Amino acid sequence: MGPIPLCVLLPVTVLAVVVAAVTTEENAVSDEYTWPQWKVPTVRKRRMVHLNSPTFSAHPQSELAGICGIECQRHLPSPSLDKLEQFLSYETFYENGTRTYTSVSVQGLSEVTAWSRNTSSSSRHKREVYGTDTRFTISDKQFSTKYPFSTTVKISTGCSGVLVSPKHILTAAHCIHDGKDYLDGVQKLRVGILKDKSKKGKGNKGRGGRRKGKRRKGDKGKEEVQEKEENGGKGDHKRKGKGQKNRSRRSAESEKPSFKWTKVKQTQVPKGWFKGVSGGLAADYDYAILELKKAPKVKHMDLGVIPSVKKLPARRIHFSGFDDDRPGHLVYRFCSVSNESSDLLYQYCDAKPGSSGSGVYIRLKEPGKKKWKRKIIGVFSGHQWVDVNGDGMQQDYNVAVRITPLKYAQICYWVHGDSSECQVA
């Protein structure tokens, strides 16, 4: 075979380069939709001391004020290792009324990638629902008692939470502690799990009364609701009017869900939440873990860590909670995150008091697999007044506390009691 003419070789070479570029771009896009693997720091117990019993004199707060916001945080110096260890040290309250303080040490902090800081901001008037209310009431127990909605729980102090292990609930710290003392009612704290009454029905065959191999009438509707949750509402316009009518009818006609209440064995709150310790950074640590006395037979949702919301599909987050204006019903919503700081997510998700403590989650692919998986990336804190520019002028946002590698390490240590279980997020 003779030499290939240059006029033929050149187009082939160009085509190969284009194909390689497209393949690289596709792989990059695919990577953006995959859960990143993080090597997280190690949090270890240093010393534990006993404290006096709390007085339970605090009362729930509808909103927080004076929080250091996006621009404000840009001018703050990075906290030293000593400060971080102080913020991550924690208080444990036990069901018998006693409490302890545990100081911690942090190792491997230098291996954690720095978080990006978004410098954009916008002013808004105080609102909790922005324009058209985009929340969905999941009133049908066929949906509310199935994953992922079933991971959402109700806290007896009036908040929501999310199941992150067989017996651990992640919620907002302000749902049990106001920064100075525990709320009245925490001494008898309970967690409500939505239960499906059909499991107790007469003549049920096996778990949930479902015969093997047969499909229930509600399965098609269940799949549609889960598809809406997974796609963030995409495709709604195809069933406009009819879908909304059916959803309204289900809300009015379906039976109100009931709860199975479980006592809390102990609670753990980071020292960074306590006012006077971290000043304006209190909101960064608005999270807590509740350990249940008995594990419910409900699938939990794992924790996840993402470097920035900019890499999320449409920057979209999801969460469900028990909003006060819809008593007894589970309320689901999704929205796009507008701004972010190293520790907080600022968004326009419609919400009312009662949804605080809800687990904020997203869906990404598991590394090396085609399977998509939901993970908790934050805790919805609620409506808060934020010092955006550091000049004392405050604006209001709906804010969520993001799970950072450090917070992941701490929460994972609380859940497992062994830092060796928490090496990679």
From TrEMBL:
<dbReference type="Pfam" id="PF00089">
    <property type="entry name" value="Trypsin"/>
</dbReference>
<feature type="signal peptide">
    <location>
        <begin position="1"/>
        <end position="20"/>
    </location>
</feature>
<dbReference type="InterPro" id="IPR001254">
    <property type="entry name" value="Trypsin_dom"/>
</dbReference>
<keyword id="KW-0721">Serine protease homolog</keyword>
<keyword id="KW-0732">Signal</keyword>
<dbReference type="InterPro" id="IPR043504">
    <property type="entry name" value="Peptidase_S1_PA_chymotrypsin"/>
</dbReference>
<keyword id="KW-0964">Secreted</keyword>
<feature type="compositionally biased region" description="Basic and acidic residues">
    <location>
        <begin position="220"/>
        <end position="235"/>
    </location>
</feature>
<feature type="compositionally biased region" description="Basic residues">
    <location>
        <begin position="236"/>
        <end position="249"/>
    </location>
</feature>
<feature type="region of interest" description="Disordered">
    <location>
        <begin position="194"/>
        <end position="263"/>
    </location>
</feature>
<dbReference type="InterPro" id="IPR009003">
    <property type="entry name" value="Peptidase_S1_PA"/>
</dbReference>
<protein>
    <recommendedName>
        <fullName>Inactive serine protease 35</fullName>
    </recommendedName>
</protein>
<keyword id="KW-0325">Glycoprotein</keyword>
<dbReference type="InterPro" id="IPR050966">
    <property type="entry name" value="Glutamyl_endopeptidase"/>
</dbReference>
<feature type="compositionally biased region" description="Basic residues">
    <location>
        <begin position="197"/>
        <end position="219"/>
    </location>
</feature>
<dbReference type="GO" id="GO:0004252">
    <property type="term" value="F:serine-type endopeptidase activity"/>
</dbReference>
<comment type="similarity">
    <text>Belongs to the peptidase S1 family.</text>
</comment>
<dbReference type="InterPro" id="IPR018114">
    <property type="entry name" value="TRYPSIN_HIS"/>
</dbReference>
<dbReference type="GO" id="GO:0006508">
    <property type="term" value="P:proteolysis"/>
</dbReference>
<feature type="domain" description="Peptidase S1">
    <location>
        <begin position="145"/>
        <end position="186"/>
    </location>
</feature>
<dbReference type="GO" id="GO:0005576">
    <property type="term" value="C:extracellular region"/>
</dbReference>
